[in-house]
Amino acid sequence: MNSLAWSLIRTTERAALAAWPQTGCGDKNAIDDLALSLSDNLRNVARALGKPLSELRMVTLDKPRSQAAIQEAAGLGVKVFSLPDGDVAASVLTCQPDNVYDLMFTVGGAPEGVLSACAVRAMAGDMQAELIDYCQAKGECDEHRRIATDERRRCAQMGVAVNRLYRLDELVRSQDILFSATGVTGGDLLHGISRRDDGVRTQTMLINGIDRTCNIINSLHS
Known about the structure:
By secondary structure, this protein is α+β, with helices and mostly antiparallel strands. It has seven helices and eleven strands. The strands form two sheets. The chain has a six-stranded mixed beta sheet, with helices on both faces. It is globular, with a radius of gyration of 18 Å.
């Protein structure tokens, strides 16, 4: 996938979103379980999709924290796609009928996770996640520990449990979702902004969770 910058908007009913756990795995058949090992999840997904492991396609982020998962999946013969960024786009792609990827397993940030959860639920996909702190995501050092301590303090104030597994209906508690993404730079999912003689052209994806529709809108701004 090419690097893709997006302008993203998501709206849901008030208080429909839980805080985003930073570790997540999703597939389209609601059979992933983060309480199991990655290997067990991959075998379960392959079985549900009727594929051998050698044909299963997993996407993740190409980060140091993902290397163990990449090696574990590759050791089973799974085709692994590691992206420098674009976890929201990859989440959307796993839920499309002509999907490039069968599932995503990664560690990512809170805003991207909330957006991904909205899109996945709106497109009838499935997702689980776990809330972890900065040290668990980035490694131990004094600065990371300071950040992690502050994160845990804020979570306690919000009544959000750290190191707890969250299912999709806990992350996004309503089907009343509108997800909108406009490409800024081009990628596999959307074209980027282009300047023409007649104006500026943009491409937007609009996903409606109520009627489960996904529309691509090409706009001319003159």
